[in-house]
């Protein structure tokens, strides 16, 4: 297969019309159904940081997956197994302070800055259409990211995302827990949920949380609470002039804040808790692909 490689660190597999971006160095990789785990260095507010990501070239449109608090890009690895998403390129990223990405001590870890970092990453992506898929905290970050350039993001698929203090599926607290307190409570949840549908989601969450930076966790959580309680996230979500779909688990039901809102399409995923894409991946990704094709 012939290919042309450009000095702007983007390569195009001409025989397949597939874009491949490699960012920090010229890496020549063939397309893989399982994707490749790579890293790239970006500059944000004058500082450099390295982000880890998983990428699979597919089509001219790309899905950008944004994980939740104390999670990682692994949250969405089920997408790589879905045949119905074959026509899309796939990209899942570890946010700063989570997964394998850098943990800069001078970074604010606010949701606004998380969105700013992702926007710098987006600038390197050659795909003209970028569909956002955000889970939990990642749903709120996706809203802030879409605000920066709605024309670049034709749709936002919110997966039980944090929109406001009325979101019944999100744990509400006056002050955020420390990472140690969170970890202990999560371990207790695993112990108490043995044999229930929630057990698997909690175990995955605990495993992903082991790679979280305690400072990044706490500051991200503080920002999440502040922004959702202020109403800024839900107001921005409603005002975005793009396609919006909200996926919610049947265990928790639709958040009150979205009930009776006719202009937002909502989709229930059977047999799922907060980690919808892990509890029932086949139904979730099948319905996600259906919405993207409309």
Notes on the protein architecture:
The longest helix has 17 residues, at 214-230. The protein is globular, with a radius of gyration of 18 Å. The chain is α/β, with parallel strands linked by helices and 294 residues long. Helix 1 (111-122) packs across helix 2 (137-148). It has helices at 111-122, 137-148, 179-192, 198-209, 214-230, 232-239, 276-279, 281-293; strands at 4-5, 10-13, 18-21, 36-44, 47-56, 61-66, 89-93, 129-135, 155-159, 243-249, 265-269. The strands form 2 sheets. It has an 8-stranded mixed sheet with strand order 4-5-7-6-8-9-10-11, sandwiched between helices. It is built from 8 helices and 11 strands. The protein has a single domain (37-293), classed as Rossmann fold (3-Layer(aba) Sandwich). A hairpin with a 4-residue loop joins strand 2 (10-13) and strand 3.
């Amino acid at each position: 297969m012939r290919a042309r490689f450009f000095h702007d660190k983007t390569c195009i597999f001409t025989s397949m019309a597939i874009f491949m971006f490699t960012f920090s160095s010229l890496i020549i990789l063939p397309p893989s159904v399982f994707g490749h785990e790579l890293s790239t260095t970006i500059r944000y507010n004058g500082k450099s940081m390295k982000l880890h990501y998983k990428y699979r070239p597919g089509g001219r449109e790309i899905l950008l997956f944004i994980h939740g608090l104390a999670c990682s890009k692994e949250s969405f690895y089920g997408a790589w197994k879905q045949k119905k998403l074959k026509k899309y390129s796939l990209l899942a990223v570890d946010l700063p302070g989570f997964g394998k990405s850098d943990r800069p001590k001078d970074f604010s870890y606010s949701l606004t800055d998380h969105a700013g970092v992702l926007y710098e990453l987006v600038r390197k992506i050659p795909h003209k259409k970028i569909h956002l898929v955000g889970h939990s905290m990642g749903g709120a970050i996706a809203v802030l990211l879409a605000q920066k350039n709605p024309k670049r993001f034709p749709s936002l698929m919110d997966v039980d995302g944090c929109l406001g203090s009325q979101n019944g599926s999100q744990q509400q607290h006056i002050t955020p827990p420390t990472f140690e307190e969170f970890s202990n409570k999560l371990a207790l949840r695993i112990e108490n949920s043995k044999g229930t549908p929630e057990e698997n989601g909690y175990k995955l969450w605990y495993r992903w949380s082991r790679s979280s930076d305690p400072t990044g966790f706490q500051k991200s959580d503080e920002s999440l609470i502040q922004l959702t309680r202020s109403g800024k996230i839900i107001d921005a979500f409603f005002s975005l002039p793009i396609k919006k779909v909200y996926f919610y688990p049947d265990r928790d039901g639709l958040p009150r804040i979205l009930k009776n809102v006719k202009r937002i399409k909502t989709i229930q995923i059977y047999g799922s808790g907060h980690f919808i894409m892990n509890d029932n991946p086949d139904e979730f990704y099948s319905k996600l692909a259906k919405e993207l094709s409309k």
